[in-house]
Design brief:
The protein is built from 16 helices and four strands. It has a two-stranded antiparallel ribbon with strand order 1-2. It has a two-stranded antiparallel ribbon with strand order 3-4. By secondary structure, the chain is mainly alpha-helical. The protein has helices spanning 13-20, 69-73, 79-107, 118-127, 154-167, 182-201, 205-217, 228-254, 271-285, 290-299, 311-323, 329-346, 351-363, 371-380, 384-389, 392-403, and strands at 40-46, 56-62, 134-141, 173-180.
């Protein structure tokens, strides 16, 4: 069988294009326009009243005639339909604005579908235990500024005492308790919590601040590293108590002569309350050590609402950046978890800060294989897998905060 040899057929593309082109019909200018409405010619015959009169026909051009003569009298509009449409659009706009406001309000508050920190507290305390002996530094108070110096006025003595109190925030006589069991440690922390409340109720605000500072310093101690997650839970209970006391005090100062609404603005806050709030932030800013300054300011983060509208939004990134100065990756991880917890309580809609904390946390994991962490684990006879489990409560909490009401597709 002979092989078939294919050859291409020659084509004249111009001739083919002419044959396939549609025939053009001449159209006068102004006769046709694509946006011009379709016109229908309706020819009506009018009959004369007299017999034998000639009939005349008239042509009128109009749009598609309405089928209902009553509708034609109303020019195609029904007043009831117009009223219903207007009220419907108004109700739709009202419902849209109300739903938008409701949605915005829901975004500013954590709902019951968010698992609170209190539900995780007991699990952490029961899981991260130790048989090692613990130690704690108890604040005993300072004797500075008790009696005025001879020859000084009351005003100058008050100023001097205030300056000494600010300089002495992190000092004072202390007593270190050694060889404490885990239960003894928890009891001592609870005693400090009660001492904080008693100092506050007796108007010893500086002493209350000193107790919080001393407790915050304990979170830098990782000498018994297996117990650190439980220590974090116990210490942050004191921080939460302090944050509530400060906020409630300033709130009470704003309730005179009328109660302050829950959705108050900066304009509703009087000058005395603002000055008191600023005084607390100035005292905290005078704390020299990074970790207690970070924790105590985070504890009263909600008080920024009394000062500026965007105070919380501006403070969260700054506190997040401060955590980068913490050298121990485990201590830094739980500091981020605490900041995310406070952030979810006061401004859960600010997701960017949560994402930033998470990425900073990921960046610190390269420190785990560093020499400092390895020497610490060898000294405490802790294996790396056991050490990594200590991060799980902090990581789980941060991820829960990020995932709450997050869209299905989001860039973390």
């Amino acid at each position: 069988m002979a092989a078939v040899q294919w050859r291409s057929r020659g084509r004249n593309y111009e001739a083919e294009q002419q044959r396939c082109r549609c025939e053009a019909s001449p159209v006068e200018f102004g006769e046709y326009h694509p946006l011009k409405p379709i016109m229908v010619t309706d020819t009506k015959t009018r009959r004369g009243a007299r017999k034998g009169s000639t009939s005349s026909s008239s042509s009128s051009s109009s749009s598609v005639p309405p089928s209902d003569p009553l509708s034609s009298m109303l020019d195609g509009t029904d007043p009831l339909s117009m009223f219903a449409a207007a009220s419907g659009s108004e109700s739709h706009a009202t419902s849209h604005s109300s739903s938008a406001g409701k949605r915005e309000k829901e975004e500013e508050a954590v709902g019951p579908d968010f698992e609170p920190w209190s539900s995780k507290r007991g699990e952490i305390l029961s899981r991260f235990t130790t048989t090692e002996k613990l130690s704690i530094n108890l604040f005993m108070g300072s004797e500075k500024g008790k009696a005025p110096s001879p020859g000084t006025s009351a005003v100058s003595e008050k100023v001097r005492t205030r300056l000494e109190e600010l300089d002495d925030l992190e000092e004072g006589s202390q007593r270190e308790l050694l060889n404490l069991s885990q239960q003894d440690y928890a009891n001592r922390i609870e005693e400090l919590n009660q001492s904080l409340k008693e100092a506050w109720s007796s108007d010893q605000k500086v002493k209350a601040l000193k107790i919080v500072i001393q407790c915050s310093k304990l979170l830098s101690d990782t000498s018994v590293i297996q117990f650190y997650p439980s220590k974090f839970v116990l210490i942050t209970d004191i921080l939460d108590t302090f944050g509530r006391l400060v906020f409630d005090r300033i709130w009470t100062m704003c309730s005179d002569p009328r109660p302050l609404p829950d959705n108050f603005t900066v304009e509703d806050v009087n000058d005395t309350a603002k000055e008191t709030c600023l005084n607390w932030f100035f005292k905290i800013a005078s704390i020299r050590e990074l970790l207690p300054r970070l924790y105590v300011e985070a504890a009263i983060l909600k008080c920024n609402r009394f000062l500026t509208k965007s105070g919380i939004q501006e403070t969260l990134p700054r506190l997040t950046a401060m955590i980068r100065g913490i050298g121990d990756p485990l201590v830094a991880a739980y500091a981020r978890a605490y900041l995310c917890r406070i952030g979810m309580e006061v401004a859960p809609q600010l997701k960017d800060n949560l994402n930033r904390n998470f990425f900073d946390l990921l960046g610190t994991f390269r420190q785990i294989s560093g020499e400092t962490v390895r020497n610490q684990l060898v000294l405490q006879r802790v294996e790396p897998p056991e050490y990594l489990t200590l991060y799980s409560p902090a990581i789980n909490w941060i991820l829960q905060c990020i995932a709450y009401r997050a869209p299905e597709h989001s860039e973390v």
